[in-house]
Amino acid sequence: MAGTKEIKTRIQSVQETKKITNAMYLIASTKLRRARLELDNTRPYFEALRGEIKRIFRTANDVDSRYFYPVNDDTPREGTYGCLVITADKGLAGSYNQNAIKEAMKLLEQHPDIKLFVVGEYGRRFFASHNISIERSFLYTAQNPTMARAREISALLLDGFDRGELKEIFVVYTDMENAMSFQARSARVLPFHRTYFNTSTGEGAATEPFEFLPNVRSVLDSMIPSYVSGFIYSALIDSFCCEQNARMTAMDSANQNAEELLGELSLKYNRVRQSAITQEITEVSAGARAQRQRKE
Predict the structure, then answer these.
(1) Which terminal Cβ of the chain has fewer Cβ within 10 Å, N or C?
(2) Which residues does residue 116 pair with via DSSP β-bridges, in sequence order?
(3) Rounded distance between C-alpha atoms, residue 178 and residue 243, angstroms
(4) d(CA 164, CA 66)
(5) Is the pLDDT of residue 287 over 80?
(6) CATH number for the domain including 49?
(7) Rounded to the nearest 5 degrees, what angle is found at the Cα of 185, between the Cα atoms of 70 and 40?
(8) What does pTM read for this prediction?
(9) Are the C-beta atoms of residues 116 and 132 closer than 8 Å to each other?
(10) What's the domain count of the chain?
(11) Pair 62, 78 in one domain
(12) Cβ atoms of residues 196 and 67 within 8 Å
């Protein structure tokens, strides 16, 4: 049985670990609030942009664009696909990274001819350790998603799509469904289905004919890159929020486990200490009794 010294050392170690996990919980909660604020500040612009694209399709249903499937045709295209995989820079976030990796591996199984574009050190290390080639690894940290970085990523993906090197583009990210749950998703960014923008909501319905200069296709082609940048930025922010939420959950669970462990160790320490005290009292009593018997 461990002595009081060993148990006391273990208790101090658990207490130090608890301080670290509690600090990580507070840091993650601060980052989560800041990221949500940034997302709320930028989302209205891209929602309005999507509304304008809907307005174009309600006004001109026969518009043709390379960024959309032809009318009544949603057959997957043959050729090389591009996939942007968003992971974290480090672990200690529950199953956050593993779920994103699993979603990316599903795409690779369904369509092996995929060029991977990876954000996050965890994803880079995983694919490198499994000898899976990466087309482009964005070396900046996943901890600070910005619109400038989203535009850089979208420009690279759009360039490959416009030159015909990438037939379809997917984004693997983690979507925060609500404050308590999140799920890894794979979303096809390009080409779009027309029904994605043809949803009739009654808002912004075209009541008068629009004039497009120089033409509808040019206007639409100039709007889509901005929308793709906004989608990627939203995916980066969503993934970052989910990472911090997952880390908060993991650290909270670690704190609870530390509390339980400290309770068990404290109880064990008290029992060992009480046993040692009882043993000392017994030895003193036995010695005193032996002395009295000798005198008698």
Answers:
(1) C
(2) 83
(3) 13
(4) 10
(5) no
(6) 3.40.1380.10
(7) 95
(8) 0.75
(9) yes
(10) 2
(11) yes
(12) no
pLDDT of residue 218: 75
- Structural domain ending residue among the three candidates 250, 270, 287: 250
Q: 212 and 135 share a domain?
A: yes
Rounded to 5°, the CA angle 180-185-189 comes to 130
Q: How many residues does the chain have?
A: 296
Contact, 89 vs 121, CB < 8 A? yes
Quick check: 60 and 51 in contact, CB under 8 A?
A: no
Whether omega before 76 lies within 30 degrees of 0, making that bond cis, reads no
Shared-domain flag, residues 9 and 25: no
pLDDT tens digits along 79-108 = 888 899 988 887 777 778 888 888 888 888
Q: Look up residue 280 and give its two tokens.
A: 């000392």
Q: Are 68 and 196 in contact (CB under 8 A)?
A: no
- In the 8-state DSSP scheme, what is residue 195? G
Q: Which two tokens stand for residue 96?
A: 């956050």
- Decide if 53 contacts 272 (C-beta within 8 A): no
What is the SS3 assignment for 117? strand
Domain containing 278 equals 4-18+253-295
- Residue 225 shares a structural domain with residue 281: no
Classify 216 in phi/psi space as left (phi over 0), alpha (psi -120 to 50) or beta.
alpha
Reading the block at residue 222, the tokens are: 């100039």
Spatial contact of 280 and 127, defined as CB atoms under 8 Å apart: no
At 150-159, the pLDDT tens digits run 888 888 888 8
* Same domain for 32 and 14: no
Task: Answer yes or no: do 178 and 69 share one domain.
Answer: yes
Please tell me whether residues 13 and 26 are part of one structural domain. Answer: no
State the amino acid at position 216 in one-letter form. Answer: V
